[in-house]
Amino acid sequence: MKKLLIIASLALSASASAAAATVQVKIDGVRNDKGVVQVALCDEATYPKDCRLTASAPAKTGSVTVDVPNVPAGTWAALAYHDENSDKKLDTNFVGIPKEGYGFSNGAKGTFGPPKFKDTAITVGEGASTATITLKY
Asked: Which DSSP string corresponds to 40-106?
């Protein structure tokens, strides 16, 4: 019986891994080669403050593509920012307005804060998925 439970557990783990996808996020509008471009994917429960799936790539003027691996199937929001000073945070001014470029999937924009999750939502299934974000400075 113990062996059967272990085999079932391993099979479930393997199928969960097989259902995970890579999300390729293309970030347009990168203004210079300084620092890195940070990308995060959030589900609705963690949006926008506690995104657990993250990846980054060196900044490059124009466009940068960042692959986020092992994303479970579901609905996600993609966020990106140009961390020009590589301090791993989005720098803001004294009233909270970002000083570094940032953007959301689907070109979603918020009013006095981030856009609604539904406006940023992308669907991830098995295999590769894509999202495009244009940075705003």
From this structure: EEE-TTTTTT---EEEEEE--SEEEEEEEEEEPSEEEEEEEEEETT-SSS--B-TTS-BSS-EEEGG
Tell me the sheet residues that pair with 97: none
Give 114-125 pLDDT, tens digit per residue.
Answer: 999 999 999 999
Q: What does pTM read for this prediction?
A: 0.84
pLDDT over 70 (residue 25): yes
* Residues whose CB is less than 8 angstroms from the CB of residue 19 and which lie 6 or more positions away in sequence, other chains included: 72, 73, 126
Q: What is the CA radius of gyration of the chain?
A: 17
Whether residue 13 has pLDDT greater than 60: no
CA distance 105 to 32: 21
